[in-house]
Protein backbone atom coordinates (compact mmCIF):
# COMPACT_ATOMS: atom_id res chain seq x y z
CA UNK A 1 0.00 0.00 0.00
CA UNK A 2 2.82 2.40 0.95
CA UNK A 3 4.55 1.70 -2.36
CA UNK A 4 1.41 2.51 -4.30
CA UNK A 5 0.66 5.69 -2.32
CA UNK A 6 4.23 7.01 -2.47
CA UNK A 7 4.57 6.16 -6.17
CA UNK A 8 1.56 8.41 -6.69
CA UNK A 9 3.73 11.35 -5.61
CA UNK A 10 6.04 11.00 -8.60
CA UNK A 11 5.72 11.77 -12.27
CA UNK A 12 6.15 8.07 -12.94
CA UNK A 13 2.41 7.48 -12.78
CA UNK A 14 1.99 9.51 -15.96
CA UNK A 15 3.90 6.87 -17.89
CA UNK A 16 2.51 3.77 -16.22
CA UNK A 17 5.44 3.48 -13.77
CA UNK A 18 7.90 3.17 -16.65
CA UNK A 19 11.28 4.92 -16.35
CA UNK A 20 11.58 8.35 -17.94
CA UNK A 21 12.49 11.99 -17.26
CA UNK A 22 10.65 13.87 -14.51
CA UNK A 23 9.25 16.45 -16.92
CA UNK A 24 7.10 13.69 -18.47
CA UNK A 25 8.34 14.45 -22.00
CA UNK A 26 8.63 11.70 -24.57
CA UNK A 27 12.26 10.66 -25.07
CA UNK A 28 12.05 9.12 -28.56
CA UNK A 29 9.53 8.82 -31.35
CA UNK A 30 8.69 5.37 -29.92
CA UNK A 31 8.26 5.94 -26.19
CA UNK A 32 4.61 7.04 -26.42
CA UNK A 33 3.64 3.94 -28.38
CA UNK A 34 5.51 1.63 -25.99
CA UNK A 35 3.98 3.34 -22.94
CA UNK A 36 0.47 2.96 -24.38
CA UNK A 37 1.01 -0.74 -25.10
CA UNK A 38 2.32 -1.27 -21.58
CA UNK A 39 -0.39 0.71 -19.79
CA UNK A 40 -3.15 -0.79 -21.95
CA UNK A 41 -1.91 -4.31 -21.21
CA UNK A 42 -1.65 -4.01 -17.46
CA UNK A 43 -4.88 -2.03 -17.15
CA UNK A 44 -6.75 -4.92 -18.82
CA UNK A 45 -4.92 -7.48 -16.69
CA UNK A 46 -5.67 -5.62 -13.44
CA UNK A 47 -9.34 -5.51 -14.46
CA UNK A 48 -9.37 -9.26 -15.13
CA UNK A 49 -7.56 -9.80 -11.83
CA UNK A 50 -10.13 -7.75 -9.92
CA UNK A 51 -13.02 -9.71 -11.45
CA UNK A 52 -11.39 -13.05 -10.63
CA UNK A 53 -10.34 -12.07 -7.11
CA UNK A 54 -13.85 -10.68 -6.51
CA UNK A 55 -15.58 -13.85 -7.75
CA UNK A 56 -13.20 -16.05 -5.75
CA UNK A 57 -13.83 -14.20 -2.52
CA UNK A 58 -17.56 -14.01 -3.19
CA UNK A 59 -17.71 -17.81 -3.80
CA UNK A 60 -15.79 -18.54 -0.64
CA UNK A 61 -18.11 -16.36 1.43
CA UNK A 62 -21.49 -17.14 -0.18
CA UNK A 63 -20.99 -20.92 -0.38
CA UNK A 64 -19.15 -21.46 2.89
CA UNK A 65 -20.15 -24.45 4.98
CA UNK A 66 -22.99 -23.53 7.31
CA UNK A 67 -23.64 -25.03 10.75
CA UNK A 68 -26.36 -27.49 9.65
CA UNK A 69 -24.77 -28.51 6.34
CA UNK A 70 -24.03 -32.19 5.85
CA UNK A 71 -22.19 -33.90 2.95
CA UNK A 72 -21.12 -32.17 -0.23
CA UNK A 73 -23.00 -29.31 -1.91
CA UNK A 74 -24.60 -29.94 -5.31
CA UNK A 75 -21.80 -30.65 -7.83
CA UNK A 76 -21.73 -29.13 -11.29
CA UNK A 77 -19.92 -30.96 -14.12
CA UNK A 78 -19.83 -31.08 -17.92
CA UNK A 79 -21.51 -27.69 -18.15
CA UNK A 80 -20.79 -27.04 -21.84
CA UNK A 81 -21.67 -23.32 -22.07
CA UNK A 82 -19.54 -22.58 -19.00
CA UNK A 83 -16.59 -24.59 -20.32
CA UNK A 84 -16.86 -22.89 -23.71
CA UNK A 85 -16.62 -19.54 -21.94
CA UNK A 86 -13.53 -20.68 -19.95
CA UNK A 87 -11.88 -21.50 -23.27
CA UNK A 88 -13.05 -18.65 -25.47
CA UNK A 89 -12.43 -15.74 -23.13
CA UNK A 90 -8.68 -16.47 -22.66
CA UNK A 91 -8.25 -17.23 -26.38
CA UNK A 92 -9.82 -13.89 -27.31
CA UNK A 93 -7.66 -12.10 -24.74
CA UNK A 94 -4.43 -13.69 -25.97
CA UNK A 95 -5.29 -12.91 -29.59
CA UNK A 96 -6.04 -9.29 -28.67
CA UNK A 97 -2.72 -8.89 -26.82
CA UNK A 98 -1.00 -10.54 -29.76
CA UNK A 99 -2.60 -8.16 -32.23
CA UNK A 100 -1.57 -4.99 -30.38
CA UNK A 101 1.93 -6.28 -29.58
CA UNK A 102 2.54 -7.28 -33.17
CA UNK A 103 1.15 -4.01 -34.50
CA UNK A 104 3.50 -1.98 -32.27
CA UNK A 105 6.50 -4.26 -32.78
CA UNK A 106 6.13 -3.86 -36.56
CA UNK A 107 5.95 -0.11 -36.17
CA UNK A 108 8.99 0.04 -33.86
CA UNK A 109 11.05 -2.31 -36.00
CA UNK A 110 10.32 -0.39 -39.19
CA UNK A 111 13.46 0.65 -41.04
CA UNK A 112 13.68 3.64 -43.33
CA UNK A 113 16.01 3.05 -46.26
CA UNK A 114 18.17 6.07 -45.51
CA UNK A 115 18.50 6.93 -41.81
CA UNK A 116 19.89 10.37 -40.96
CA UNK A 117 22.79 8.91 -39.01
CA UNK A 118 24.39 5.52 -38.41
CA UNK A 119 26.08 4.43 -35.20
CA UNK A 120 27.88 1.13 -34.70
CA UNK A 121 27.96 -0.14 -31.12
CA UNK A 122 30.28 -2.97 -30.13
CA UNK A 123 29.61 -4.79 -26.88
CA UNK A 124 32.47 -6.54 -25.11
CA UNK A 125 33.06 -8.02 -21.69
CA UNK A 126 32.53 -5.59 -19.93
CA UNK A 127 32.15 -2.29 -21.72
CA UNK A 128 31.19 -0.63 -24.99
CA UNK A 129 32.84 0.86 -28.07
CA UNK A 130 30.90 3.54 -29.96
CA UNK A 131 31.67 4.14 -33.65
CA UNK A 132 30.16 7.12 -35.49
CA UNK A 133 29.97 5.50 -38.92
CA UNK A 134 28.98 8.59 -40.96
CA UNK A 135 31.84 10.67 -39.53
CA UNK A 136 34.35 7.78 -39.41
CA UNK A 137 35.35 8.62 -35.84
CA UNK A 138 34.85 6.78 -32.56
CA UNK A 139 34.67 7.38 -28.84
CA UNK A 140 37.73 6.34 -26.85
CA UNK A 141 37.56 2.57 -26.31
CA UNK A 142 35.30 1.86 -23.35
CA UNK A 143 36.93 0.36 -20.29
CA UNK A 144 35.15 -1.53 -17.59
CA UNK A 145 33.65 0.84 -15.07
CA UNK A 146 34.13 -1.15 -11.84
CA UNK A 147 30.99 0.51 -10.56
CA UNK A 148 31.73 1.27 -6.95
CA UNK A 149 28.76 3.49 -6.24
CA UNK A 150 31.11 6.38 -5.53
CA UNK A 151 30.18 9.89 -6.72
CA UNK A 152 31.71 10.90 -10.05
CA UNK A 153 31.65 7.36 -11.41
CA UNK A 154 28.90 8.22 -13.92
CA UNK A 155 31.15 10.81 -15.62
CA UNK A 156 33.87 8.23 -16.23
CA UNK A 157 31.59 5.90 -18.19
CA UNK A 158 31.81 5.65 -21.98
CA UNK A 159 29.37 8.12 -23.50
CA UNK A 160 27.46 7.87 -26.75
CA UNK A 161 26.41 11.17 -28.32
CA UNK A 162 23.33 11.41 -30.53
CA UNK A 163 21.85 14.35 -32.49
CA UNK A 164 18.29 15.24 -31.45
CA UNK A 165 15.40 14.74 -33.92
CA UNK A 166 17.53 12.68 -36.29
CA UNK A 167 16.66 9.10 -37.19
CA UNK A 168 19.58 7.02 -35.99
CA UNK A 169 20.30 3.51 -37.12
CA UNK A 170 22.05 1.38 -34.52
CA UNK A 171 24.20 -1.43 -35.86
CA UNK A 172 24.92 -3.72 -32.94
CA UNK A 173 27.85 -6.14 -32.76
CA UNK A 174 29.52 -8.17 -30.06
CA UNK A 175 33.17 -9.04 -29.71
CA UNK A 176 32.67 -12.07 -27.45
CA UNK A 177 29.36 -13.24 -25.94
CA UNK A 178 25.74 -12.11 -26.26
CA UNK A 179 25.09 -8.67 -24.76
CA UNK A 180 22.02 -6.48 -24.96
CA UNK A 181 22.04 -2.77 -25.80
CA UNK A 182 19.59 -0.95 -23.55
CA UNK A 183 19.09 2.80 -23.11
CA UNK A 184 16.67 2.63 -20.20
CA UNK A 185 14.54 5.70 -20.97
CA UNK A 186 14.22 4.71 -24.65
CA UNK A 187 12.12 1.76 -23.35
CA UNK A 188 13.67 -0.57 -25.91
CA UNK A 189 16.59 -2.97 -25.99
CA UNK A 190 18.16 -5.29 -28.47
CA UNK A 191 20.52 -8.26 -28.26
CA UNK A 192 24.05 -8.02 -29.66
CA UNK A 193 25.24 -11.31 -31.16
CA UNK A 194 28.82 -12.32 -31.85
CA UNK A 195 29.20 -12.82 -35.62
CA UNK A 196 25.86 -11.27 -36.51
CA UNK A 197 24.87 -7.60 -36.76
CA UNK A 198 21.47 -6.63 -35.38
CA UNK A 199 19.94 -3.24 -36.15
CA UNK A 200 17.19 -0.92 -35.08
CA UNK A 201 16.28 2.69 -35.76
CA UNK A 202 15.03 5.35 -33.40
CA UNK A 203 14.64 9.13 -33.34
CA UNK A 204 15.55 10.72 -30.00
CA UNK A 205 13.26 13.72 -29.51
CA UNK A 206 14.41 15.16 -26.18
CA UNK A 207 17.84 16.58 -25.36
CA UNK A 208 19.33 15.20 -22.18
CA UNK A 209 21.59 12.61 -20.60
CA UNK A 210 20.37 9.05 -20.24
CA UNK A 211 21.66 5.88 -18.67
CA UNK A 212 22.46 2.76 -20.63
CA UNK A 213 23.22 -0.77 -19.50
CA UNK A 214 23.77 -4.27 -20.72
CA UNK A 215 20.51 -6.21 -20.39
CA UNK A 216 21.84 -9.70 -21.06
CA UNK A 217 23.71 -11.54 -18.32
CA UNK A 218 27.12 -11.76 -20.01
CA UNK A 219 29.56 -12.77 -17.30
CA UNK A 220 31.07 -11.87 -13.98
CA UNK A 221 31.03 -8.06 -14.35
CA UNK A 222 27.80 -7.78 -16.34
CA UNK A 223 26.50 -5.24 -13.82
CA UNK A 224 29.50 -2.94 -14.47
CA UNK A 225 28.62 -2.73 -18.15
CA UNK A 226 27.22 0.79 -18.03
CA UNK A 227 27.27 3.78 -20.38
CA UNK A 228 25.77 7.24 -20.83
CA UNK A 229 23.85 8.64 -23.77
CA UNK A 230 23.88 12.36 -24.47
CA UNK A 231 21.21 13.59 -26.85
CA UNK A 232 22.32 17.04 -28.04
CA UNK A 233 21.60 19.63 -30.74
CA UNK A 234 23.04 19.09 -34.20
CA UNK A 235 25.62 21.89 -33.61
CA UNK A 236 26.85 20.31 -30.38
CA UNK A 237 26.97 16.93 -32.06
CA UNK A 238 29.02 18.24 -34.97
CA UNK A 239 31.37 20.01 -32.56
CA UNK A 240 31.87 16.77 -30.66
CA UNK A 241 32.66 14.90 -33.89
CA UNK A 242 35.28 17.56 -34.72
CA UNK A 243 36.63 17.25 -31.19
CA UNK A 244 37.08 13.47 -31.60
CA UNK A 245 38.77 14.01 -34.95
CA UNK A 246 41.13 16.58 -33.41
CA UNK A 247 42.04 14.17 -30.63
CA UNK A 248 42.89 11.50 -33.21
CA UNK A 249 39.97 9.13 -32.63
CA UNK A 250 39.59 8.52 -36.35
CA UNK A 251 38.43 5.28 -37.95
CA UNK A 252 36.35 2.57 -36.32
CA UNK A 253 36.92 0.10 -33.50
CA UNK A 254 35.98 -3.10 -35.29
CA UNK A 255 34.84 -6.45 -33.99
CA UNK A 256 38.21 -7.93 -34.97
CA UNK A 257 40.16 -6.12 -32.22
CA UNK A 258 41.96 -8.50 -29.91
CA UNK A 259 39.69 -8.98 -26.97
CA UNK A 260 42.35 -10.54 -24.77
CA UNK A 261 44.73 -7.62 -25.11
CA UNK A 262 41.96 -5.30 -24.09
CA UNK A 263 41.22 -7.50 -21.15
CA UNK A 264 44.83 -7.19 -20.03
CA UNK A 265 44.71 -3.43 -20.28
CA UNK A 266 41.53 -3.49 -18.25
CA UNK A 267 43.23 -5.56 -15.60
CA UNK A 268 46.06 -3.05 -15.36
CA UNK A 269 43.53 -0.32 -14.95
CA UNK A 270 41.86 -2.37 -12.28
CA UNK A 271 45.14 -2.77 -10.39
CA UNK A 272 45.72 0.98 -10.51
CA UNK A 273 42.26 1.63 -9.16
CA UNK A 274 42.82 -0.86 -6.36
CA UNK A 275 41.27 -4.27 -6.00
CA UNK A 276 37.53 -4.53 -6.13
CA UNK A 277 37.39 -6.69 -3.03
CA UNK A 278 40.09 -6.49 -0.40
CA UNK A 279 41.47 -9.94 0.09
CA UNK A 280 42.11 -11.28 3.55
CA UNK A 281 39.58 -8.99 5.17
CA UNK A 282 38.06 -11.75 7.21
CA UNK A 283 41.34 -12.88 8.77
CU1 LIG B 1 27.02 -7.48 -21.47
Number of domains: 2
pLDDT averaged residue by residue: 87
DSSP helix count?
A: 5
Structural class: alpha+beta
Q: Give the names of the bound compounds.
A: copper (II) ion
Q: What is the class of the largest domain in the CATH system? A: Mainly Beta
Q: How far apart lie the N and C ends?
A: 44 Å
Tell me, briefly, the overall form.
elongated
Label the CATH architecture of the largest domain. Answer: Sandwich
| CATH superfamily placement of the largest domain | Cupredoxins -  blue copper proteins
- Give the H and E element order: HHHEEEEEEEEEEHH
Total number of beta strands: 10
Strand composition percent: 15-25%
By CATH, the topology of the largest domain is Immunoglobulin-like
* Helical content band: 25-40%
Which stretches are poorly predicted, pLDDT < 50 over at least 5 residues? 273-283
Quick description:
The protein has 283 residues and is of the alpha+beta class.
SSE blueprint and pairings:
Elements: H1 2-7, H2 31-62, H3 80-108, E1 117-124, E2 127-132, E3 137-138, E4 159-163, E5 168-174, E6 179-183, E7 188-192, E8 198-202, E9 208-214, E10 226-232, H4 234-246, H5 259-273
Parallel strand pairs: 1-5, 4-10
Antiparallel strand pairs: 1-2, 2-3, 5-8, 6-7, 6-9, 9-10
Helix pairs in contact: 2-3
Copper (II) ion binds at residues 123, 179, 214, 216, 218, 222, 225.
Features:
alpha+beta; binds copper (II) ion; 5 helices; five-stranded mixed sheet; disordered C terminus; elongated; 34% helix; 283 residues
Description:
- The protein has 283 residues and is of the alpha+beta class.
- It folds into 2 domains: 31-62 and 75-108; 117-276, Cupredoxins -  blue copper proteins (Immunoglobulin-like), CATH 2.60.40.420.
- Helices cover 34% and strands 20% of the residues.
- It has 5 helices and 10 strands.
- The protein has helices spanning 2-7, 31-62, 80-108, 234-246, 259-273, and strands spanning 117-124, 127-132, 137-138, 159-163, 168-174, 179-183, 188-192, 198-202, 208-214, 226-232.
- The strands form 2 sheets. The chain has a 5-stranded mixed sheet with strand order 3-2-1-5-8.
- The model is unreliable at 273-283 (pLDDT under 50).
- Copper (II) ion is lined by residues 123, 179, 214, 216, 218, 222, 225.
Amino acid sequence: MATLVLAGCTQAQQRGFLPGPDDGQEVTNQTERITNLWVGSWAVLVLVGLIIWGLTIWCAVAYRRRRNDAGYPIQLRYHVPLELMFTLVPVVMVLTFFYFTQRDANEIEMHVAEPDYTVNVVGKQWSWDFNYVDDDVHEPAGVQSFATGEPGAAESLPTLWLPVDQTVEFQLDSRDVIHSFWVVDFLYKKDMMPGHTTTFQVTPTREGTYQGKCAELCGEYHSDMLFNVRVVSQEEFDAHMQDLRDQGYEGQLGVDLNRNEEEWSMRELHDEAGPRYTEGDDE
